[in-house]
Design goal:
This protein is α+β, with helices and mostly antiparallel strands. It has 17 helices and 45 strands. β2 and β3 (20-25) form a beta hairpin. α7 runs antiparallel to α10. The protein is flat, with a radius of gyration of 57 Å.
């Protein structure tokens, strides 16, 4: 082994030839090392010789052709140097690539040079004269995953795109590349128009490119826009090629118009949910956009025909793009139209890895919305092994192709039948990313994430679609250079916008986009400076590593920004502390919740939930969990006592009714008549339950009320408590039987284990005797998680799937304990007397040796193996004797084998019998469990019914009746006061009416008096009468005029008639004044009368309303009493009916069947079957929903786990970056992990040896303890025997004393003594006989257990051939 040190930064490539080792360094230089001499020891090589001076372009590959050095450099530069002419450059060639990855020579004389790049392979013909060779491209492909593959408008061509930014066109027939276009960014999705020469690309940066292929092979970018914030997830043209739609995870769907001379953006609409995939589907003559949502639905949108009306704003409103939705089973990852004629259908790949076909509704009523009924698929295929993939539908044949991330593709019929899978891509690299048919439907292109494109001929699938041919090899014999290649600098990061395009709100701010060009000019010098700084830093590190140990610097001393280092460490420590605190709080919260749940739900349980399963049958029975008895039991005892007292009272008063209860009648108010208990003394009430001849506590069934006697709430409440007690008694009774079943199962399992152990021994003996073991001799009974309830809350170590985290303190403590244990083990190994004793006595092990010498084996002497013709007579006799003994042993061996086989069959039969008996017993217990369950359900139903009745009666209690009566009384009192006030006011109104009538009479009398007094005036009477009536305004006034209340003017002397004497004028004035005063008084009284009548009318109306209210209150009280009486008497009587056809008269059904029709029973049964089928479908839907949610929760859990792992990896990376490199780390780097693993393995071996030694010591100590315990047991048994003998002596003495006392007491009656002696003697004889029978039974039982404890052995006594075997 030899070692050499380089002065360069590092070696990037090398080539080993007989002349030496040629190395390409990172600084661009080429150096050569001479071949070292052969030596067994490590030696240093001679200093490397620099052949090529350092260059800015570093070499990536090197090879030697004769005397020429061929170097491939970064940037695609290929150089040739002549080593015989001072390493001068003979020629150079620029290849169309970024990096030459490998150089290799081939051909008969190694004159052909193969240069491989990241996406192509070139062949060059090397000549000896040093001429520049010709370049020939053999193959060119994508240099990374292919993300899309679509067929072009012209048949036989497929176009692909990938993350390398290249767009390539291939021929389906021979797989050659026809054209290419660069600068397309990292394309994510791809689509092609079937009626226009357009291709649409969506990149990972959200950029959409539309490329024209009208002048093929020339391709040009006609539109380029950044429309999304994230990668474009789906893009599609409609059937006419006039519209284009694309979407991304930002919930935006953008629309393009491709009909005009220029492709233009119509606008975009924001969806409520994230769109996973989209496609255009024909609904009649109209194309609609069908989208698959992430929430598990399908949305159908109509494409807008006009762009948005607002200038420079492309966002559509919801009304501009009408949408309809339906709900489906699973979210759809890929969608493609089915092309089934008039039926709008789609094929879709769901998250469940199934390919489904959906027939979309034609009518608007069929789109029921995201929360409507589930829309089912019409056909479904088999699952792929991975969810992601691709879909494509043939336009020529009714077939569909699907690709999966597992690398397989499958071709199906339109009904999703007849599928055949074939694997064409690598699973680990992402599998199939896109599939596409050509126009003829005979070829299929499958693009993979592994960077390969596979073309398949599926012409045979148009008829049967049962198999797919093997993939055709993609060849590239020639390459056509396209004329429309875009500039390589056209990348997604630059904000380059085509003419006529507009920016939407996804694009960065205007100022930032304007400064891109300026910043790009400033960025290049900065990158050069950073590169130079990195090179200088690498040189310093290299020089430091080559310096002596005393002059070397520590790695942390190279850190220039110490404050940043401290800041990062502080941030990391703070984040770790927060995470620890958060985890600690979560753990504390969970612990508190667990403890509280345990205290409230688990600890109070008297009987915890458990189950017992059959040994072979699938029956599993559960017990009834019971809580511990609480304070309600004291209440139950009080109610029991009251009920017993009530029963005593009924018996004493001779009021017993059927069911041992009292029938109570209700009065008109709904109250029980005679419910008051008869007056009795306290002593009688107390002594009633304990009268002579009656039990102090009645059975629970006798305490229950009869169904017809529960007519008061008190009895119903008591009945509820009694039924609850009965439910508990049923559960307790069944739990006792359940516990006996569990005990029986344990004993049966013990028996089975004994039989199984014996069967294994017999099978082992059979194998030794050359027989068969009889198959499996083990038996594993069925178990359940609830077999042991105490283990429900116990978490086993194997149930915890995550790695246990140890803090630094815990880790240090564990390491310290491990070291102490290792030291103790080392010290114990030096002088271990126990191990030495074990080796001397038992060969170093406590295991029992299973090798047993074969008793039927007979060894043949060596001389018998020779030639029998050379034997003498004595030897021939010995041979015959040996053959006779061998035959006898074979016979005995056969007999013993037959006996063992018989015993094995008997043991198996016993096990089967035990299992059958226990399963039969378990079936009987299961039937009793069902009976108990039926009784419990019946009792619970009765409790619910009684509780409902008590609740209804609570709404009609006495308090409500008292409130109604109080309201009625108050209303009556108010009406009484109102009636009295009304009567008094009527009197006042009558008096006012009389007063008005008297004033009217007086007014008429004053009119008559005026006529009498002024009748003498004759000629002036008329004028005087008019002046008498005049009240102002008009000379002819009306006394009823409302203006009368105004100030009436006095008569003017000028109005006096001519010739009237003054005396009459004065009389006229006086009479007129008196008349006016009287009229005023009359008007005032009439006004008061009108007001009083109006008030009287209001009072009468109020009195009528009060009377009506009183009537309603009386009716409500009557209804209340009737309802209470109805509720009290309306008892519920449960009727038990057998399951089956129960013919009862339904309530509310007419008995007139004149218009009824008789139908066959099968019609009803068919209808029931339909109902059951729909119910089953609904249950299946609910099950699918549950499973889907379960999958979602699982994915969320996995995503959360992946996020936590990513954070952990980031933290570990940061720790490794900040790790201080010391000598131990250097040693790990030099030696690798092998040394650490060997040291760790040695430690584990020592620990294993110590554990074995410790186990042996523990076994020895346990054996000593067992021996001591057995000695103690023997001593205790002897002491017990002695005590029994002493007790027998004491009993004999006691019996003697008793007989003496008895004889003394009975001396006065000798006949009675003789009779007692005879009776006693007879009893003693009977007791002795019973004990003798019991002793015989115990002896038989002991003998049976003795025989079971010691197994029987076959008698192996040898018999001679002439002896007769015993029978």
């Amino acid at each position: 082994m030899a070692r050499a040190d380089f002065d360069c930064e590092g070696v990037g490539c090398f080539c080993l030839k007989p002349g030496g080792l040629y190395c390409g360094c990172e600084d661009g230089s080429i150096v050569m090392l001479n071949a070292p001499p052969r030596s067994n020891s490590e030696s240093s090589l001679s200093p490397p010789q620099t052949l090529i001076a350092p260059n800015q372009s570093k070499p990536t590959s090197i090879t030697i052709y004769q005397t020429s050095l061929l170097v491939g450099r970064a940037g695609g530069l290929l150089e040739s140097f002549d080593l015989t002419r001072g390493n001068t450059k003979t020629w150079e060639l620029q290849l169309p690539c970024n990096t030459i990855t490998n150089l290799d020579l081939g051909g008969p004389n190694l004159e052909r040079l193969l240069a491989s790049t990241e996406n192509s392979v070139h062949m060059l013909q090397i000549t000896a004269d040093g001429q520049r060779p010709r370049n020939r491209c053999l193959f060119e492909c994508h240099s990374g995953p292919i993300t899309g593959a679509v067929e072009l408008r012209e048949a036989g061509r497929v176009c692909t795109c990938g993350v390398d930014g290249m767009l390539r066109v291939w021929d389906f027939k021979d797989g050659r590349q026809i054209a290419k276009l660069g600068g397309c960014g990292k394309s994510a999705v791809m689509a092609a128009s079937h009626s226009a020469d357009l291709i649409a690309l969506g990149s990972e940066k959200g950029v959409v490119r539309i490329i024209g292929t009208g002048h093929f092979p020339s391709m040009t970018v006609v539109l380029r826009l950044r429309l999304h914030k994230a990668a474009v997830s789906s893009i599609a043209f409609n059937s006419t090629g006039s519209r284009l739609a694309c979407t991304s995870s930002d919930k935006r769907v953008c629309f393009f118009d491709t009909t005009g001379p220029k492709v233009s953006l119509l606008g975009y609409v924001c969806m409520s949910d994230r769109v996973l995939s989209l496609s255009w589907v024909q609904f009649g003559s109209e194309d609609r956009l069908v989208m698959g949502l992430a929430t598990g639905g399908i949305t159908c949108a109509q494409c807008p025909k006009q762009p948005t009306t607002k200038e420079n704003q492309y966002k559509y409103s919801v009304r501009d793009v009408p949408c309809q939705s339906i709900k489906i089973e699973f979210p759809l990852l890929k969608i493609t139209p089915a092309n089934l004629g008039t039926i709008p259908s789609i094929f879709a790949l769901g998250v469940d890895r199934n390919i489904r076909r959906y027939d979309l509704p034609k009518e608007a009523s069929g789109w029921t919305g995201a929360k409507g009924r589930m829309h089912r698929s019409t056909a479904k295929s088999e699952k792929h092994s991975k969810a992601d993939g691709a879909l494509s539908v043939s336009h020529a044949f009714p077939i569909v192709a699907s690709g999966s991330a597992d690398g397989s593709i499958a071709v199906w019929r339109n009904d999703m039948t007849g599928g055949k899978k074939v694997v064409v891509h690598q699973l680990l690299n992402g599998g199939v990313s896109s599939v596409s048919f050509d126009k003829s439907g005979r070829h299929l292109a499958a693009a993979g994430s592994d960077g390969s494109l596979v073309l398949l001929d599926i012409s045979d699938t148009k008829t049967q679609n049962e198999q797919t041919s093997t993939p055709a090899k993609v060849q590239n014999p020639r390459f056509y250079e396209p004329r429309g290649v875009c500039d390589k600098q056209d990348v997604d990061e630059e904000h380059i916008w085509t003419e006529g395009a507009h920016r939407i709100d996804v694009v960065e701010e205007e100022a930032a986009s304007q400064e891109v060009v300026v910043e790009q000019d400033k960025k290049d010098p900065l990158l050069l400076k950073l590169k130079a700084l990195k090179q200088n830093f690498d040189r310093c590190v290299l020089a430091n590593s080559r310096a002596t140990e005393s002059e070397q610097l520590e790695p942390f001393e190279f850190v220039m920004d110490r404050p940043l280092e401290k800041k990062l460490k502080a941030q990391g420590d703070e984040r770790v502390a927060k995470i620890k605190e958060k985890a600690k709080r979560e753990i504390q919260t969970l612990s508190i919740v667990w403890e509280r749940n345990k205290q409230h739900c688990w600890d109070p349980m008297e009987v915890k939930g458990a189950s017992v399963a059959g040994l072979k049958s699938p029956i599993e029975i559960h017990n009834f969990p019971l809580a511990k008895e609480s304070d309600g039991d004291a209440l139950f005892e009080k109610m029991r006592l009251l009920r017993e007292v009530e029963l005593k009272e009924h018996r004493s008063l001779d009021l017993q009714s059927q069911g041992a209860t009292l029938r109570v009648d209700l009065d008109k108010d709904g109250k029980p008549i005679g419910s008051e208990k008869p007056q009795m003394d306290d002593g009688e009430a107390t002594e009633a339950p304990t009268e002579e001849g009656e039990a102090s506590e009645q059975p629970l069934d006798k305490l229950l009320y009869d169904d017809f006697d529960m007519i008061v709430p008190r009895r119903k409440t008591a009945q509820i408590h009694f039924i609850k007690k009965k439910i508990r008694d049923i559960k307790v009774k069944f739990n006792e039987e359940f516990q006996l079943t569990v005990s029986r199962k344990i004993s049966e399992l013990d028996k089975i284990e004994e039989h199984t152990t014996r069967m294994k021994e017999v099978a082992r003996d059979l194998v030794k005797l050359g027989g068969s073991d009889g198959g499996s001799v083990g038996f594993s009974p069925k178990t359940s998680d609830l077999d042991d309830p105490e283990t429900v809350l116990v978490v086993k170590n194997e149930e915890v799937k995550v790695e246990k985290y140890l803090s630094p303190e815990e880790q240090a403590k564990a390491d310290e304990e491990r070291l102490e244990e290792e030291n103790r083990m080392q010290s114990a190994k030096k002088n271990n007397i126990f191990e030495r004793a074990l080796k001397q006595m038992m060969g170093g092990t406590l295991e029992k040796r299973t090798e047993v010498e074969d008793e039927f084996k007979l060894d043949m002497p060596e001389w018998m193996m020779g030639d029998p013709s050379a034997f003498n007579d004595e030897q021939i006799k010995e041979v015959k004797e040996f053959q006779a003994r061998l035959k006898s042993l074979e016979d005995e061996k056969a007999k013993k084998r037959a006996a063992l086989e018989s015993e094995l069959r008997t043991l198996r039969a016993n096990i089967e019998d035990v299992c059958d008996k226990f399963d039969k017993h378990l079936l009987e217990v299961h039937h009793r469990f069902l009976d108990a369950q039926w009784e419990l359900l019946q009792a619970e139903l009765q409790i619910v019914s009684l509780g409902n009745s008590v609740h209804r009666f609570a709404n009609v209690d006495d308090e409500k009746e008292a409130a109604l009566m109080k309201n009625l009384t108050s209303m009556k009192e108010r009406r009484s006061h109102l009636s009295q006030s009304l009567q008094e006011f009527r009197t006042i109104v009558a008096e006012q009416q009389d007063c008005v009538n008297s004033l009217v009479v007086e007014d008429r009398q004053m009119e008559r008096a005026f006529k009498r007094e002024f009748a003498e005036t004759q000629d002036h009477y008329t004028e005087l009468h008019e002046l008498y009536k005049w009240r102002g305004g008009s000379p002819r006034g009306n006394p009823d005029d409302p203006n009368l209340e105004r100030e009436v003017p006095a008569l003017d002397i000028e109005t006096m008639p001519e010739g009237l004497p003054p005396l009459w004028w004065d009389k006229l004035v006086e009479h007129r004044e008196t008349k006016i005063q009287h009229e005023r008084q009359l008007k005032g009284e009439q006004t008061n009368l009108i007001r009083m009548k109006k008030q009287l009318q209001k009072l009468e109306i109020e009195d009528q309303a009060m009377e009506f209210g009183i009537g309603e209150a009386v009716a409500e009280i009557g209804d209340f009493k009737g309802l209470r009486q109805m509720i009290s008497y309306n008892v519920e009587y449960p009727i038990s009916l057998k399951q089956g056809q129960v013919e009862t008269q339904p309530e509310g059904m007419s008995s007139d069947f004149g218009h009824a029709a008789i139908v066959h029973r099968s019609i009803v049964e068919d209808l029931n079957q339909i109902i059951k089928g729909k119910g089953g479908k609904k249950v299946a839907i609910l099950t699918a929903i549950k499973d889907f949610k379960k999958g979602i929760y699982g994915l969320q859990w996995e995503n959360q786990g992946c996020d936590m792992k990513a954070e952990d990896l980031v933290e570990r990376t940061r720790e490794l970056q900040l790790l201080r490199v010391n000598k131990s780390v250097h040693q790990v780097v030099k030696q690798g992990e092998a040394g650490l693993k060997s040291h760790e393995a040695a430690g584990y071996e020592q620990l294993m040896k110590f554990n074995e030694h410790l186990h042996k010591n523990n076994v020895a100590e346990r054996q000593k303890k067992v021996a001591k315990l057995e000695a103690t047991i023997m001593e205790k048994a002897m002491q017990n025997e002695q005590m029994k003998e002493e007790i027998d002596k004491i009993h004999k003495l006691h019996d003697g004393h008793k007989r003496v006392e008895h004889s003394l007491a009975t001396t006065r009656s000798p006949s009675r003594k003789v009779m007692r002696t005879i009776v006693t003697d007879k009893k003693l004889r009977d007791i002795a006989k019973a004990q003798a029978v019991e002793i015989q039974m115990l002896q038989a039982e002991m003998e049976r257990w003795h025989m079971r404890t010691y197994p029987s052995f076959v008698d192996t006594k040898k018999y001679y051939p002439d002896e007769k075997l015993p029978i």
